[in-house]
Amino acid sequence: MTVGPAAPDSPCREFFQSILSRISSHFGRLKYVAGLRHKETGAYGHEEAEQTFDAGQVDEVLRRAHIEIFEAWLCLSLEEQASDLADYLRDHVQTAGEADRAWKPQLSCAGLVPPTALKTQQDLFRSDLETILKIFYRHE
Fold it and tell me: Which whole number is the average pLDDT over 29-40?
């Protein structure tokens, strides 16, 4: 069965909007959606959602959400990005040492950039994230 693009107000989209609305930071939402993309196939999936919705529809909704969240992050000023990332880290990291060991490698761009992102978007994301991390680790 071929599934067309999910409507903006589809039940599948509403399902994911409900989940994403509970994640307080842009960066957290970005990591969440990026984490639902299978490395081997490039398809997005969510086991619980696929019990109710067609896998193709889930993939389409998550693919769109990934680029929307990514672009929203890019629209933040560098100061807003730094604050958002600090909020994310505060929620997920206990100590600075833990940040170095557990999170610094995960904060790399790998996997966070949607596959359809333009090269200029990829470069801006990478540059912004590197700048923020340099600022963070300079103040330790």
Answer: 94
State in Å, rounded, how far the first CA of the chain is from the last one: 54
In a domain, 98, yes or no: yes
Q: What single letter denotes the amino acid at residue 41?
A: T
- Gap between the Cα atoms of 37 and 112, Å rounded: 10
Report the share of the chain in percent with pLDDT over 70: 79
Give domain status of residue 51, yes or no: yes
Confidence (pLDDT) at 124: 95
Give strand pairing partners of 37.
44
Q: Which amino acid, residue 123? A: D
Q: What distance in Å separates the CA atoms of residue 40 and residue 114, rounded to the nearest whole number? A: 15
Number of domains the chain contains: 1
Residue 105 DSSP class: G
Count CB neighbours of 133 within 10 A.
16
